[in-house]
Amino acid sequence: MSTYSGPVFDMARSQFETIADHIGIPQHERPRILLPKRAITVACPIHRDDGSIAVFEGYRVQHHLTFGPTKGGTRYAANVDLGEVAALAIWMSWKCALAGLPYGGAKGGIAVDPHSLSRRELEALSRRYMQEMIPFVGPQTDVPAPDMGTNEQVMAWFMDTYSMYQGQAVPEVVTGKPVAVGGTVGRREATGRGVAHLVGRAMERIGLDPRGATAIVQGYGNVGSVSALTLAEMGVRILGVSDHTACYHDPRGLDLAAIERHVAAHGSLAGFSTELAFDPKELLVQPCDVLVPAAVERVIDADVARRLRCRILAEGANGPTTPEADRVLAERDEIFVLPDILCNSGGVIVSYFEWVQDIQRLFWEEDEVKRRANQILDRAFHQVQERVQRERIPQRMAAMAIGVEKVLDGKRRRGLFP
Ligand SMILES: NC(=O)C1=CN([C@@H]2O[C@H](COP(=O)(O)OP(=O)(O)OC[C@H]3O[C@@H](n4cnc5c(N)ncnc54)[C@H](O)[C@@H]3O)[C@@H](O)[C@H]2O)C=CC1
Ligand SMILES: O=C(O)CCC(=O)C(=O)O
C-alpha cells in the first residue's frame, strides 16, 4: 500500500510507467525515480475572526534532491490532498529537468478554500504554514512559490515568517514575491507569457497566423488571464473565458479590457455579463485555434478529447489531460499538444531567475528576464520537437522522456551508497 493515492497521483504514476517502458528503465530502478524523497504533513491551527479555532491540513512533498534544492508552488484549494501534491511535485521534477534548471520538484498545499477566509485569516494561515515548514524548507533545501489559490502577497508572508525566524531578510527562500521585497520583475506574468510564447512557436510549426486566430481560456487567474492578454497582444481573438464563478463565450470575440476591469473591481468573472454567459462544461469543446486549460487537473478526459475542436492544446494548468485522453489525442493526431511540463514552465524558469538574483543581490531588467526565459523555452521546445520527429511519439511523451532521462542519469551518476 503506497502513501500516495488518488486519481491525480495515479495519473502521474501512469504517465511515468509509459515513459519508463518507452525508454527502458528496469523495474527495479523505477521506484527510486518515481517515489518522492520526503513528504511533510502539518496541522495549521488559526484563530478565526469569530474567535473559534480552525485547524487546516498542510502538505509539502519534495520529490528528488539529486541536482539541488527542490522547487515548486503552493496550492490553496479545498480538495488538496497528499496524493495530488505528490503528483504535482513529480511533474515539477520533469519540468525543471526539461528546462535544465538545477532543481528537483516539490509542491505544497493547504486543504482550504482561500475564498472562505478573511484577509486576516489568510495571513494567519499562511504564516502558520510557513512556520511549520521552517525545518524543512530553505534557499538550499526547498524553495516554495505560488500556485493556484496563492499569490505574491502570500509569498511575502512566507518570506517574512521565515526571515523573522532567521533574524535577517532571506528573500531567496521563496519566489514569486512582490518586487518590493526581492521578487523579480516579470515573475507574476511569466507563466502566461511563456504559454503564449510557446503557442507562437506551435503556430509557426503548423503554419497558423496569430493575427485572426482564435482562443479559449479556462481559468482566469494568474496563468489564464496573462495567457489571454498576451495572446490578444499577438493578434489572437479570445472567444471564451471561464473561472470558478462564471463562463462567457462570444464567437465575435470578448472585450478583454472590459473583463480585466471587471475582475480588478470584483475579484472574479461573476457578474460580467448575462448575454454572454455560457455552459462551462461545453466551453472546452467550442471551435477555436488555441485551447488553454489554465485551472485544475483532469478536465480533458477521453470524451472531451474526442470532441475537442482546437488546433493547439496549450496546457497552462498542470495535469489537465488524463492518460485516456492522451490516447485519444494520439489517435486523432491532428491537435498540436503543448504538454504542461513544457507549456507552463515559464513560471519556474523565471522563479529560478528570481532565486539567482536574490542570492547574488543583483537584479535584472525586465528585457533580460524575458530574453533569457524565451531562450530556455525555445531550447526545450526544439528538443521536444526533435524527439517527436526522431521517435514518432506524442509531444507529452517526448517532453517527459527528456525530463525523466535527465533525472535518471543524475541519479545513476551520483550512484547509490553501497
Ligand atoms: N502560478 C504559476 O506560476 C503556475 C501555475 N500553474 C498551473 O496553472 C493553473 C492555474 O494556476 P494559477 O493561475 O496560478 O491559479 P490562480 O489561483 O491564480 O487562478 C486559478 C483560476 O482557475 C479558476 N478555476 C478554478 N477551478 C475552476 C474550474 N473548475 N473551472 C474553471 N475555472 C476554474 C479560478 O477561479 C481562477 O480564476 C494550475 O493548474 C497551476 O498549477 C503552472 C505553472 C506555474
Ligand atoms: O515557480 C515555481 O517555483 C513553481 C511554479 C509551479 O508551481 C509550477 O510550475 O507548477
UniProtKB/TrEMBL annotation:
Family that this chain belongs to: Belongs to the Glu/Leu/Phe/Val dehydrogenases family.
Residue sites binding substrate per the record: K71, K95, S351
Positions with a binding annotation for NAD(+): T191, N222
Active site: K107
Entry superkingdom: Bacteria
GO MF annotation terms: glutamate dehydrogenase (NAD+) activity; nucleotide binding
An example Gene Ontology biological process: L-glutamate catabolic process
UniProtKB keywords: NAD, Nucleotide-binding, Oxidoreductase
PANTHER family the UniProt entry points to: GLUTAMATE DEHYDROGENASE, GLUTAMATE DEHYDROGENASE 1, MITOCHONDRIAL
Protein name: Glutamate dehydrogenase
Pfam family, one: ELFV_dehydrog_N
SMART domains according to UniProt: ELFV_dehydrog (SM00839)
Record domain Glutamate/phenylalanine/leucine/valine/L-tryptophan dehydrogenase C-terminal: where: 184-415
Site (Important for catalysis): D147
InterPro entries, A to Z: Aminoacid_DH-like_N_sf, Glu/Leu/Phe/Val/Trp_DH, Glu/Leu/Phe/Val/Trp_DH_C, Glu/Leu/Phe/Val/Trp_DH_dimer, Glu/Leu/Phe/Val_DH_AS, Glu_DH, NAD(P)-bd_dom_sf, NAD_bind_Glu_DH
UniProt-listed SUPFAM superfamilies: Aminoacid dehydrogenase-like, N-terminal domain, NAD(P)-binding Rossmann-fold domains
